[in-house]
């Protein structure tokens, strides 16, 4: 029988199938950060349990870490406690930790792939919704809650109801100047933030096959913002070339063997999805959000919907959202002045994002009205930025590089956008207060962020 990519990986990981109940699934890789893991470790302590397979779990603090002076003690007591607790848990349970100051520290969804811990065919979990990022490798990767973190630590398994499957096809080629982030924001705008609830999504089609691994990670990262359990892309030569040679990638004979298996990981012809939709890649424009959820987006040259374009049931929240943002129905945002630019996060904090940003700002100057936070996703990204001399281009254009971490993506550290200020951000959430109390977030890709940083306004990077 024809199988989807999802079915193949899922079926290969079933430990116990229960009729009318969740399936027990084996987990190949487990990532942990400081926010969602403390109670899980305490739970193990209370039960007198060890971590079942310590080599399968990797820890990195990312949410609470400062992006300046990481060599000094963390000032905020709550953040310090969370980061210290993660270190203690790693030591007590014998787990690998890329702690603060470690050359491999960074956002957990950035360091997994760059170290070769993320591989095709795997089941991957983390107590974090953006675990969907790892699906870019052709893996079943999804976020879990803290009680499930405890379950995985104790048993290397998890109980999961089988999600429905959806395939989204992007036919044809993207237009020049359109990025992976635009694909994702466009898709959420079409499907809405609840449009993929209950589904595991496979992204497919020519425009997806043409993406680099980092671009695929950006697309899969945002799956959760349309409610999907996760997103995935079939592995191909691009995937294999990215994984090969990385620290934890299989080597020698083991590589040849696994590669033969990875090549079978694609949806068979005739495989049935519970839902299938298609978009014309050429209809995607550089995309920005105007509201307070990632589905409230539009082409950069477009206009915010007018009230009559909104379903009656949604009008109150639409008005509330625009009120928070200080925008009016029907308004165009191109040319509107902004205050902050944030380049970073597990969505767009990788080397290609910094290359794209640097290429745009090269020979130009940062606008005086803009405060720009350029935050690499990891120390490996930071090192690469310097190795390529991108830091010099950025400095000459008036920018400074900060130290890696989640930073202003959710403002758990000091990087908070002040109330009422507008931030063009390459991250993935624009909820009220996400980047600081009262902060107003406009989500966009790295090129739109670069254009905003040099003009001080919302600007189409193609002009
Ligand atoms: C802190 C964590 C639980 C959260 C998530 O799960 O996504 C965070 O990473 C976020 O992006 O909001
Ligand atoms: S960068 Fe943002 S989205 Fe990603 S894990 Fe950190 S807080 Fe969550």
TrEMBL record:
SUPFAM superfamilies: Aconitase iron-sulfur domain. Pathway: Amino-acid biosynthesis; L-leucine biosynthesis; L-leucine from 3-methyl-2-oxobutanoate: step 2/4. It comes from the Bacteria. It is an enzyme of class 4 (lyase). Binds 1 [4Fe-4S] cluster per subunit. Pfam families: Aconitase. GO terms for molecular function: 3-isopropylmalate dehydratase activity; 4 iron, 4 sulfur cluster binding; metal ion binding. Gene3D superfamilies: Aconitase, domain 3. Its cofactor is [4Fe-4S] cluster. [4Fe-4S] cluster binds at residues 346, 406, 409. Keywords: 4Fe-4S, Amino-acid biosynthesis, Branched-chain amino acid biosynthesis, Iron, Iron-sulfur, Leucine biosynthesis, Lyase, Metal-binding. GO terms for biological process: L-leucine biosynthetic process. Heterodimer of LeuC and LeuD. Catalyzes the isomerization between 2-isopropylmalate and 3-isopropylmalate, via the formation of 2-isopropylmaleate. This is 3-isopropylmalate dehydratase large subunit. It comes from Paludibacter jiangxiensis.
